Structure formats: structure tokens, C-alpha cells
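Progress narrative, work stream C.
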Amino acid sequence: MATNVDAPMVGKILRVEKKVGDKVEEDEVVVVMEAMKMEIPVVAPASGVLKELKVTPGQAVEAEQVLAVIE
């Protein structure tokens, strides 16, 4: 079953820490975004394999936008 990694708030993607095909553990940082002049680590809500990455560094994102998919 696929699990979405969602943006917690409006912001901009600073770094992508994982690539498609990487194994990720629950609570491991997948993406780092900037919001309100702070770096916000976005962590995996579940363990699995990163199936899809939907953002790139510099991209603006909305709150609850899907950033990545873990399967």
C-alpha cells in the first residue's frame, strides 16, 4: 500500500535527501523545506521504498501537497 509524504505547510523545497528506489525508515528525513525562514525536515510517515518523488529543489509547495510516495 502506498503512503504519501505531504508538505506540513506552505514553503519551498530546499533539499531532497532521498532518491527514487531508496529504502526509507519511518521518521527518516525525505525532503527539507524552508518555511517562515526556518528549515523544516519532512519525514517519512512509514517505512518502505521511495516509489515516486514529486518535487525538486527550489519548487514552491502548498500545505498538504504530496511531495513523495513510499510503497
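Work stream C, second folded protein:
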Amino acid sequence: MLYKPAKKRLTEKELEDKPYLGTLYIRPDDKLKALRGAQRGFSTDLSDRIMKGRLEDLVEIKRDLTVIIDETLSEPRSGHLGVLPDYVSSIVDGYATQPELIKYLARIAHTDYSTAIHSLNVMALTIGYCYHTKQSMEKTRTLALSALLHDIGKPEINPEILIAPRRLTDKEFSEMQQHPLIGVDILTEYGSQFAVAIPGMLHHHLRLDGTGYPEGLRGRPISEAGRLLAIIDSYEVMTNDDRMYRSAIRPYDALVELKKEVDAGKYDRKIFAEFAYSLVDSQ
């Protein structure tokens, strides 16, 4: 798909006078229509692949999803996020027939780690948790969407900060702390469509002892989705091999580290236990 470069806005006059400008451009509405068409085809293809139950089909599913998610997250204010709830529903509904397959989705490695891949992995782990805890389909879709969008504000953070192969400076970390608030601003532009995803996204870096960011809430005011995503987000970061500044640790060791944080009052003990058991179920 070829379209205008990111963040470049074309005037009506430019489109009339030079419809291609040396490159093939399409309007945002055309791109959204194309993404919706791709989503319908993906949903049909997803059902066929799930029925086959083959790991190689799951690899292709993750590859396709990564491209789609990266495409929509790269310009989140463009209106293209509107396709993501349908993708989430397709995945949740599809894997309801064979939930054992969801356990593989977050394990399939890609060579280039990105916000899109991280978000997809967190969503897969969240769906696994929902199946283990027997959440309703509606709640599973809500939590999965929250997981997929939890880092939606990161594309507007300086990319040099996002990929820095070192510990961030205080100033850089202060900028990084803004990404949940940026995410709220982005999703608010869509009206009520993504309202259910905002609490988890806003709270996923908060801790029960009052630490974390951006609001410094303590205990119960932190949403259930925020409590869950705080654990799953941290777990995924610790166990992924593709971070430049440190090596991944084993899933068991990651759970040991998270348990220390639970004992220190930072994470929800019950949610942590259920998440750990959901991983055991998937072994």
C-alpha cells in the first residue's frame, strides 16, 4: 500500500494540481476503506487457519497482525484505529474454539522488536489470562483491546528515547512517562468508541503502593484492567529476547521477580496468581 508520508498533509489544491506528486498518494478515507477490506479478509482467513490448528498458520497470523497493527499505530490520530476492535473480536471469537492455540501467539519471535509486537504479545497473554479465569466474551474483548492499545501514545515520544540502548536520563524518562496521557488524548479523539480501553491504558504503569505514573493513584482507584496490564506488560518486557540493553530472563525467573514486587505491595496478589496459573496452563 502506497500513500502519503507520515505526518504530511496534502491540501485539496495539491491533490487537484498534482495528484501523485512523484509518488502514489491515497486519501485517509481510502486507506481506512482498504484496512476495513483487509480486516474482513483477515477474519475469514483467520477462521480457516484456526480450524487447521497448525503452528505454521499461527506464525503467518502473527506476521499479518504485526504489519496491520504497526500500520495503524504509526499514525494513531489518522482515524485508522477504527479497524482494531474488529480485529480483536476476530481473534477472541476465533480462538474461543481452540483456546490452546493462543498460548503460542506471544511466544512466536520476530527479528525486529517494536511497540506493535510488544502490544500484540501483551494482548495474547491477556487473552490467555481471560480464558483461564473464564471471563465473559465481552470482558475478554474489552481487556484484549485495552492490552493492544496500552502503548498507543508511544509513537509520539521521541524515537531516540524509545530505542535508547541504555538507562534513560531523568529528562528522557519524564518524557517517556507522558505516553499514557498522550494515549488518553488520542483515544478521546475517537469519542466513545475506545472509552473502555482508556482505564487500562492510563493505569498500566501505576503501582498499588502509590508509585508509578502518570497519576500516582494508590490501591483501589487503579482499574482492574490497569492492575492486570501492569503485571503482563512487565512480564512481557522481562521475557522478550529482543531488547537491546539487556537479555531476556526465563519465564519462571520473571515470575519470581514479579512475586517480590507483589510482596512489596506493588502488584495485585490475586491477579498475579491467576496470571501465573494461566501461564502454567499453557505449558
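Residues 123 and 144 are 5 Å apart (CA to CA). No further action is required on this item.
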